[in-house]
UniProtKB/TrEMBL annotation:
Claim: Membrane is one of the keywords in the record: yes
Single GO MF descriptor: O-acetyltransferase activity
Superkingdom of this protein's organism: Eukaryota
UniProt signal peptide: 1-27
PANTHER family linked to this entry: PROTEIN TRICHOME BIREFRINGENCE-LIKE 38 (PTHR32285:SF36), PROTEIN TRICHOME BIREFRINGENCE-LIKE 9-RELATED (PTHR32285)
Coiled coil (residue ranges): none
Keyword Signal: yes
Domain Trichome birefringence-like C-terminal per the UniProt entry, residue ranges: 95-359
Species the sequence originates in: Morella rubra
Membrane topology designation: Single-pass membrane protein
Compartment(s) where it occurs, according to its Swiss-Prot or TrEMBL record: Membrane
Cellular-component GO terms for this entry: Golgi apparatus; membrane
Protein name per UniProt: Protein trichome birefringence-like 38
Amino acid sequence: MGFGTQRSCSVLVTFFVIYTCLCLANSAKNTQNVKWRKQQRSCNLYEGNWVFDFSYPLYDSQSCPHIRKEFDCQKYGRPDDFYLKYRWQPKECDLPRFDGQDFLRRLHGKKIMFIGDSVSLNQWQSLMCLLHAAVPNSKTIEQSNESLSITTFQDYGVSVMLFNSHYLVDIEEEQEVGRVLKLDSLKNGDIWKDIDVLVFNTWLWWYRRGPSQPWDYIEDGNKVLKDMDRMVAFRKALTTWAKWVDRDVDPTKTKVIFQGISPSHYNGKDWGEPGVKNCSKETEPFSGSTYPSGLPQAAYVVNDVLATIQNPVHLLNITALSQLRKDAHPSSYNAFKGMDCTHWCVAGLPDTWNQLLYAALISN
Ligand SMILES: *[C@@H]1O[C@H](CO)[C@@H](O)[C@H](O)[C@H]1NC(C)=O
Ligand SMILES: *[C@@H]1O[C@H](CO)[C@@H](O)[C@H](O)[C@H]1NC(C)=O
Ligand SMILES: *[C@@H]1O[C@H](CO)[C@@H](O)[C@H](O)[C@H]1NC(C)=O
Protein backbone atom coordinates (compact mmCIF):
# COMPACT_ATOMS: atom_id res chain seq x y z
CA MET A 1 0.00 0.00 0.00
CA GLY A 2 1.45 3.37 -1.02
CA PHE A 3 1.74 6.23 1.31
CA GLY A 4 -1.05 8.14 -0.50
CA THR A 5 -3.60 5.36 -0.09
CA GLN A 6 -2.67 4.92 3.49
CA ARG A 7 -3.17 8.61 4.05
CA SER A 8 -6.56 8.84 2.33
CA CYS A 9 -7.55 5.75 4.22
CA SER A 10 -6.63 7.32 7.53
CA VAL A 11 -8.42 10.52 6.45
CA LEU A 12 -11.53 8.43 5.81
CA VAL A 13 -11.17 6.70 9.12
CA THR A 14 -10.72 10.06 10.81
CA PHE A 15 -13.88 11.40 9.14
CA PHE A 16 -15.79 8.34 10.14
CA VAL A 17 -14.61 8.60 13.72
CA ILE A 18 -15.47 12.31 13.92
CA TYR A 19 -18.85 11.73 12.27
CA THR A 20 -19.69 8.86 14.58
CA CYS A 21 -18.56 10.85 17.57
CA LEU A 22 -20.70 13.82 16.56
CA CYS A 23 -23.77 11.59 16.11
CA LEU A 24 -23.13 9.84 19.36
CA ALA A 25 -22.58 13.15 21.13
CA ASN A 26 -25.81 14.50 19.70
CA SER A 27 -27.88 11.50 20.57
CA ALA A 28 -26.19 11.33 23.95
CA LYS A 29 -27.26 14.93 24.53
CA ASN A 30 -30.82 14.13 23.46
CA THR A 31 -31.04 11.01 25.58
CA GLN A 32 -29.51 12.92 28.44
CA ASN A 33 -32.17 15.61 28.18
CA VAL A 34 -35.02 13.11 27.84
CA LYS A 35 -33.59 11.10 30.70
CA TRP A 36 -33.29 14.27 32.71
CA ARG A 37 -36.92 15.25 32.06
CA LYS A 38 -38.07 11.82 33.19
CA GLN A 39 -35.85 11.79 36.23
CA GLN A 40 -36.42 15.27 37.44
CA ARG A 41 -40.01 14.63 38.43
CA SER A 42 -38.76 12.47 41.25
CA CYS A 43 -35.27 13.93 41.57
CA ASN A 44 -34.52 16.52 44.20
CA LEU A 45 -31.89 18.69 42.49
CA TYR A 46 -30.93 20.29 45.79
CA GLU A 47 -29.75 17.11 47.42
CA GLY A 48 -26.29 15.96 46.42
CA ASN A 49 -22.62 16.77 46.69
CA TRP A 50 -19.83 18.78 45.07
CA VAL A 51 -17.54 16.95 42.66
CA PHE A 52 -14.29 18.14 41.15
CA ASP A 53 -14.68 18.73 37.40
CA PHE A 54 -11.84 19.97 35.19
CA SER A 55 -14.28 21.30 32.59
CA TYR A 56 -15.38 24.00 35.03
CA PRO A 57 -15.82 26.98 35.36
CA LEU A 58 -18.52 27.56 32.74
CA TYR A 59 -16.80 30.78 31.54
CA ASP A 60 -13.61 32.74 32.02
CA SER A 61 -14.31 35.63 34.39
CA GLN A 62 -11.78 37.76 32.49
CA SER A 63 -13.99 37.71 29.41
CA CYS A 64 -17.09 38.82 31.32
CA PRO A 65 -17.61 42.56 30.94
CA HIS A 66 -17.79 44.56 34.16
CA ILE A 67 -17.97 42.10 37.02
CA ARG A 68 -18.47 44.22 40.13
CA LYS A 69 -15.31 44.81 42.09
CA GLU A 70 -16.85 43.07 45.09
CA PHE A 71 -17.03 39.72 43.25
CA ASP A 72 -14.13 39.62 40.78
CA CYS A 73 -11.85 37.48 42.95
CA GLN A 74 -9.37 36.43 40.25
CA LYS A 75 -8.84 40.02 39.18
CA TYR A 76 -8.14 41.03 42.77
CA GLY A 77 -5.48 38.43 43.22
CA ARG A 78 -7.07 35.27 44.55
CA PRO A 79 -4.19 32.81 44.11
CA ASP A 80 -6.13 29.51 44.08
CA ASP A 81 -8.63 28.36 41.48
CA PHE A 82 -9.91 25.00 42.69
CA TYR A 83 -13.02 26.76 43.99
CA LEU A 84 -13.94 27.34 40.32
CA LYS A 85 -13.82 23.66 39.49
CA TYR A 86 -16.61 22.14 41.49
CA ARG A 87 -19.79 20.92 39.88
CA TRP A 88 -22.98 20.28 41.83
CA GLN A 89 -23.98 16.64 41.48
CA PRO A 90 -27.54 15.90 42.58
CA LYS A 91 -27.94 12.48 44.15
CA GLU A 92 -30.41 10.95 41.73
CA CYS A 93 -29.94 12.73 38.43
CA ASP A 94 -27.67 15.19 36.62
CA LEU A 95 -28.13 18.91 36.50
CA PRO A 96 -28.66 20.05 32.89
CA ARG A 97 -25.67 22.04 31.67
CA PHE A 98 -26.46 25.74 31.39
CA ASP A 99 -27.40 26.60 27.78
CA GLY A 100 -27.47 30.40 27.50
CA GLN A 101 -28.89 30.50 23.98
CA ASP A 102 -31.67 28.15 24.95
CA PHE A 103 -32.31 30.26 28.07
CA LEU A 104 -32.70 33.39 25.92
CA ARG A 105 -34.83 31.67 23.28
CA ARG A 106 -37.22 30.33 25.89
CA LEU A 107 -37.58 33.75 27.45
CA HIS A 108 -38.10 35.42 24.07
CA GLY A 109 -40.09 38.64 24.48
CA LYS A 110 -40.07 38.27 28.26
CA LYS A 111 -38.65 39.88 31.36
CA ILE A 112 -36.93 38.21 34.28
CA MET A 113 -36.33 40.20 37.45
CA PHE A 114 -34.16 39.51 40.50
CA ILE A 115 -35.53 41.30 43.54
CA GLY A 116 -33.61 41.56 46.79
CA ASP A 117 -30.34 42.60 48.40
CA SER A 118 -26.72 42.29 47.23
CA VAL A 119 -27.07 38.50 47.09
CA SER A 120 -29.53 39.07 44.24
CA LEU A 121 -26.96 41.37 42.66
CA ASN A 122 -24.43 38.56 43.02
CA GLN A 123 -26.69 36.09 41.19
CA TRP A 124 -27.73 38.60 38.54
CA GLN A 125 -24.07 39.32 37.85
CA SER A 126 -23.32 35.63 37.39
CA LEU A 127 -26.27 35.28 34.99
CA MET A 128 -24.93 38.22 32.98
CA CYS A 129 -21.57 36.46 32.65
CA LEU A 130 -23.19 33.13 31.71
CA LEU A 131 -25.36 34.78 29.06
CA HIS A 132 -22.55 36.93 27.76
CA ALA A 133 -20.36 33.84 27.38
CA ALA A 134 -23.16 32.12 25.42
CA VAL A 135 -23.90 35.04 23.07
CA PRO A 136 -20.82 37.27 23.17
CA ASN A 137 -21.82 39.23 20.07
CA SER A 138 -25.46 39.80 20.93
CA LYS A 139 -26.33 43.46 21.19
CA THR A 140 -27.31 44.58 24.67
CA ILE A 141 -28.72 47.79 26.09
CA GLU A 142 -28.00 48.64 29.69
CA GLN A 143 -29.99 51.06 31.81
CA SER A 144 -29.77 51.61 35.51
CA ASN A 145 -30.57 53.87 38.41
CA GLU A 146 -30.29 53.28 42.12
CA SER A 147 -33.31 51.01 42.35
CA LEU A 148 -33.30 49.20 39.01
CA SER A 149 -30.75 47.81 36.54
CA ILE A 150 -31.87 46.41 33.20
CA THR A 151 -29.85 44.58 30.58
CA THR A 152 -31.79 43.90 27.39
CA PHE A 153 -30.57 41.28 24.93
CA GLN A 154 -31.96 42.92 21.81
CA ASP A 155 -31.68 39.97 19.41
CA TYR A 156 -33.76 37.89 21.80
CA GLY A 157 -36.03 40.58 23.20
CA VAL A 158 -35.16 39.47 26.72
CA SER A 159 -34.68 41.84 29.66
CA VAL A 160 -32.75 40.67 32.70
CA MET A 161 -33.52 43.03 35.56
CA LEU A 162 -32.31 43.64 39.07
CA PHE A 163 -34.57 45.44 41.55
CA ASN A 164 -32.82 46.59 44.68
CA SER A 165 -34.89 45.86 47.81
CA HIS A 166 -33.33 44.94 51.14
CA TYR A 167 -36.49 43.79 52.88
CA LEU A 168 -39.08 43.36 50.06
CA VAL A 169 -41.49 45.28 52.31
CA ASP A 170 -41.31 49.08 52.31
CA ILE A 171 -39.24 51.65 54.14
CA GLU A 172 -40.97 55.03 54.18
CA GLU A 173 -39.81 58.38 55.41
CA GLU A 174 -42.42 59.84 57.76
CA GLN A 175 -42.40 63.41 58.97
CA GLU A 176 -41.30 63.83 62.59
CA VAL A 177 -40.80 60.08 62.94
CA GLY A 178 -38.03 59.08 60.54
CA ARG A 179 -37.53 56.04 58.35
CA VAL A 180 -40.13 53.38 59.08
CA LEU A 181 -39.80 49.74 58.06
CA LYS A 182 -43.40 48.68 57.36
CA LEU A 183 -43.88 44.97 57.79
CA ASP A 184 -47.36 45.06 56.23
CA SER A 185 -46.65 47.19 53.18
CA LEU A 186 -45.39 46.04 49.79
CA LYS A 187 -46.00 48.86 47.35
CA ASN A 188 -43.40 47.79 44.79
CA GLY A 189 -45.51 44.71 44.14
CA ASP A 190 -47.38 46.82 41.59
CA ILE A 191 -44.17 46.99 39.53
CA TRP A 192 -43.17 43.36 40.07
CA LYS A 193 -46.47 41.72 39.17
CA ASP A 194 -46.18 42.56 35.47
CA ILE A 195 -42.86 40.72 35.05
CA ASP A 196 -42.77 37.17 33.61
CA VAL A 197 -40.23 35.58 35.97
CA LEU A 198 -39.57 36.87 39.50
CA VAL A 199 -36.68 35.67 41.66
CA PHE A 200 -36.96 36.99 45.23
CA ASN A 201 -34.49 37.01 48.09
CA THR A 202 -34.24 38.80 51.42
CA TRP A 203 -32.28 37.97 54.56
CA LEU A 204 -28.96 39.77 54.82
CA TRP A 205 -30.33 42.99 56.30
CA TRP A 206 -32.69 41.66 58.92
CA TYR A 207 -30.05 41.66 61.68
CA ARG A 208 -28.33 44.92 60.71
CA ARG A 209 -28.02 47.34 63.63
CA GLY A 210 -26.29 50.62 64.30
CA PRO A 211 -25.35 53.06 61.53
CA SER A 212 -25.88 50.56 58.70
CA GLN A 213 -29.47 49.84 59.76
CA PRO A 214 -31.48 51.74 57.12
CA TRP A 215 -34.58 52.39 59.28
CA ASP A 216 -35.38 54.11 62.61
CA TYR A 217 -38.69 52.47 63.51
CA ILE A 218 -40.53 49.34 62.64
CA GLU A 219 -44.29 49.30 61.97
CA ASP A 220 -46.10 46.10 62.84
CA GLY A 221 -49.85 46.35 62.27
CA ASN A 222 -50.88 49.57 63.99
CA LYS A 223 -47.92 49.62 66.37
CA VAL A 224 -44.79 51.66 65.71
CA LEU A 225 -41.82 50.20 67.60
CA LYS A 226 -38.19 51.12 68.16
CA ASP A 227 -37.23 47.50 67.57
CA MET A 228 -38.53 43.95 67.86
CA ASP A 229 -37.37 40.35 67.58
CA ARG A 230 -35.74 40.33 64.16
CA MET A 231 -36.70 36.75 63.27
CA VAL A 232 -40.33 37.56 64.05
CA ALA A 233 -40.08 40.67 61.89
CA PHE A 234 -38.58 38.62 59.04
CA ARG A 235 -41.43 36.12 59.29
CA LYS A 236 -44.05 38.88 59.25
CA ALA A 237 -42.55 40.60 56.22
CA LEU A 238 -42.28 37.32 54.36
CA THR A 239 -45.91 36.61 55.20
CA THR A 240 -46.89 39.99 53.73
CA TRP A 241 -45.01 39.00 50.59
CA ALA A 242 -46.69 35.55 50.56
CA LYS A 243 -50.15 37.13 50.76
CA TRP A 244 -49.20 39.45 47.91
CA VAL A 245 -48.22 36.44 45.77
CA ASP A 246 -51.64 34.88 46.30
CA ARG A 247 -53.57 38.11 45.90
CA ASP A 248 -51.80 39.94 43.08
CA VAL A 249 -49.70 37.55 41.01
CA ASP A 250 -51.35 35.85 38.03
CA PRO A 251 -49.77 32.38 38.01
CA THR A 252 -50.70 31.82 34.34
CA LYS A 253 -48.50 34.76 33.43
CA THR A 254 -45.81 35.07 36.09
CA LYS A 255 -43.51 32.45 37.52
CA VAL A 256 -42.45 33.10 41.11
CA ILE A 257 -39.20 31.81 42.54
CA PHE A 258 -37.89 32.38 46.05
CA GLN A 259 -34.19 32.01 46.64
CA GLY A 260 -33.37 30.26 49.91
CA ILE A 261 -31.07 31.74 52.54
CA SER A 262 -27.53 32.36 51.30
CA PRO A 263 -25.21 31.35 54.16
CA SER A 264 -22.08 33.17 55.32
CA HIS A 265 -18.91 31.65 56.81
CA TYR A 266 -17.57 33.62 59.76
CA ASN A 267 -17.89 30.94 62.37
CA GLY A 268 -15.71 27.85 62.00
CA LYS A 269 -17.81 26.08 64.60
CA ASP A 270 -20.49 25.79 61.90
CA TRP A 271 -18.21 23.51 59.85
CA GLY A 272 -16.35 21.81 62.65
CA GLU A 273 -13.35 24.14 63.02
CA PRO A 274 -13.93 26.10 66.20
CA GLY A 275 -11.62 29.10 66.52
CA VAL A 276 -11.74 29.95 62.80
CA LYS A 277 -13.34 33.37 62.45
CA ASN A 278 -13.56 33.90 58.71
CA CYS A 279 -13.18 32.20 55.31
CA SER A 280 -9.66 33.47 54.49
CA LYS A 281 -7.99 30.07 54.64
CA GLU A 282 -10.73 28.08 52.95
CA THR A 283 -9.79 26.62 49.57
CA GLU A 284 -11.97 23.50 49.54
CA PRO A 285 -15.64 22.81 50.10
CA PHE A 286 -16.77 21.07 53.26
CA SER A 287 -16.52 17.41 52.36
CA GLY A 288 -19.62 15.29 52.68
CA SER A 289 -23.16 16.44 52.20
CA THR A 290 -24.24 17.06 55.80
CA TYR A 291 -23.13 20.39 57.18
CA PRO A 292 -22.45 20.19 60.93
CA SER A 293 -24.47 23.26 61.98
CA GLY A 294 -27.61 22.16 60.15
CA LEU A 295 -29.81 24.65 58.31
CA PRO A 296 -30.01 28.23 59.65
CA GLN A 297 -33.16 29.12 61.55
CA ALA A 298 -34.21 31.55 58.82
CA ALA A 299 -34.45 28.67 56.33
CA TYR A 300 -37.18 27.11 58.48
CA VAL A 301 -39.04 30.42 58.50
CA VAL A 302 -38.84 30.46 54.69
CA ASN A 303 -40.19 26.89 54.54
CA ASP A 304 -43.07 27.70 56.90
CA VAL A 305 -44.12 30.79 55.01
CA LEU A 306 -43.81 29.26 51.55
CA ALA A 307 -46.04 26.40 52.72
CA THR A 308 -48.89 28.87 53.29
CA ILE A 309 -48.93 30.06 49.65
CA GLN A 310 -51.61 28.67 47.33
CA ASN A 311 -50.06 29.86 44.04
CA PRO A 312 -47.11 27.86 42.73
CA VAL A 313 -43.81 29.17 44.08
CA HIS A 314 -40.54 27.41 43.40
CA LEU A 315 -38.01 27.40 46.24
CA LEU A 316 -34.54 27.76 44.76
CA ASN A 317 -33.25 25.79 47.69
CA ILE A 318 -29.59 26.83 47.61
CA THR A 319 -29.04 26.99 51.38
CA ALA A 320 -27.60 23.56 52.13
CA LEU A 321 -25.50 23.27 48.97
CA SER A 322 -24.05 26.75 49.57
CA GLN A 323 -23.27 26.02 53.22
CA LEU A 324 -20.80 23.43 51.95
CA ARG A 325 -18.96 26.12 49.94
CA LYS A 326 -16.93 27.87 52.62
CA ASP A 327 -14.24 28.17 49.91
CA ALA A 328 -16.35 30.18 47.45
CA HIS A 329 -16.40 33.64 49.10
CA PRO A 330 -14.19 36.55 48.04
CA SER A 331 -12.61 36.80 51.54
CA SER A 332 -10.14 39.69 51.02
CA TYR A 333 -9.83 39.29 47.22
CA ASN A 334 -11.98 42.25 46.28
CA ALA A 335 -11.33 45.91 45.55
CA PHE A 336 -11.84 46.86 49.21
CA LYS A 337 -9.56 44.21 50.74
CA GLY A 338 -12.23 43.89 53.41
CA MET A 339 -13.04 40.38 54.65
CA ASP A 340 -16.18 39.23 52.82
CA CYS A 341 -17.45 35.76 53.70
CA THR A 342 -21.03 36.70 52.81
CA HIS A 343 -20.98 37.26 49.05
CA TRP A 344 -19.56 34.88 46.46
CA CYS A 345 -16.89 35.05 43.78
CA VAL A 346 -18.01 35.40 40.16
CA ALA A 347 -17.28 33.07 38.39
CA GLY A 348 -18.17 30.64 41.14
CA LEU A 349 -21.03 29.37 43.25
CA PRO A 350 -23.77 31.70 41.89
CA ASP A 351 -23.26 30.03 38.49
CA THR A 352 -24.64 26.87 40.09
CA TRP A 353 -27.59 28.83 41.45
CA ASN A 354 -28.27 29.93 37.87
CA GLN A 355 -27.94 26.38 36.58
CA LEU A 356 -30.58 25.41 39.12
CA LEU A 357 -32.70 28.39 38.09
CA TYR A 358 -32.39 27.29 34.46
CA ALA A 359 -33.39 23.74 35.43
CA ALA A 360 -36.44 25.12 37.27
CA LEU A 361 -37.46 27.20 34.25
CA ILE A 362 -37.14 24.40 31.67
CA SER A 363 -38.88 21.79 33.81
CA ASN A 364 -42.37 22.96 32.76
C1 LIG B 1 -33.76 22.18 51.00
O1 LIG B 1 -32.71 21.28 50.75
C2 LIG B 1 -32.17 20.67 51.90
C3 LIG B 1 -31.03 19.77 51.46
O2 LIG B 1 -31.45 18.82 50.52
C4 LIG B 1 -33.24 19.92 52.69
O3 LIG B 1 -32.71 19.43 53.88
C5 LIG B 1 -34.41 20.87 52.96
O4 LIG B 1 -35.46 20.16 53.57
C6 LIG B 1 -34.91 21.48 51.68
N1 LIG B 1 -35.99 22.40 51.96
C7 LIG B 1 -37.18 22.27 51.42
C8 LIG B 1 -38.22 23.22 51.84
O5 LIG B 1 -37.42 21.41 50.61
C1 LIG C 1 -35.54 53.92 37.82
O1 LIG C 1 -35.88 53.55 36.50
C2 LIG C 1 -37.17 53.01 36.36
C3 LIG C 1 -37.33 52.51 34.94
O2 LIG C 1 -36.71 53.32 34.01
C4 LIG C 1 -38.20 54.06 36.76
O3 LIG C 1 -39.51 53.54 36.63
C5 LIG C 1 -37.96 54.48 38.20
O4 LIG C 1 -38.84 55.51 38.57
C6 LIG C 1 -36.51 54.93 38.38
N1 LIG C 1 -36.26 55.11 39.82
C7 LIG C 1 -35.54 56.10 40.31
C8 LIG C 1 -35.35 56.11 41.79
O5 LIG C 1 -35.07 56.97 39.61
C1 LIG D 1 -9.31 36.02 59.49
O1 LIG D 1 -8.96 34.88 60.18
C2 LIG D 1 -7.53 34.74 60.36
C3 LIG D 1 -7.27 33.39 60.97
O2 LIG D 1 -8.40 32.65 61.26
C4 LIG D 1 -7.05 35.89 61.25
O3 LIG D 1 -5.66 35.79 61.40
C5 LIG D 1 -7.39 37.20 60.56
O4 LIG D 1 -7.07 38.28 61.40
C6 LIG D 1 -8.87 37.27 60.22
N1 LIG D 1 -9.08 38.45 59.40
C7 LIG D 1 -10.11 39.29 59.58
C8 LIG D 1 -10.12 40.49 58.72
O5 LIG D 1 -10.97 39.05 60.38
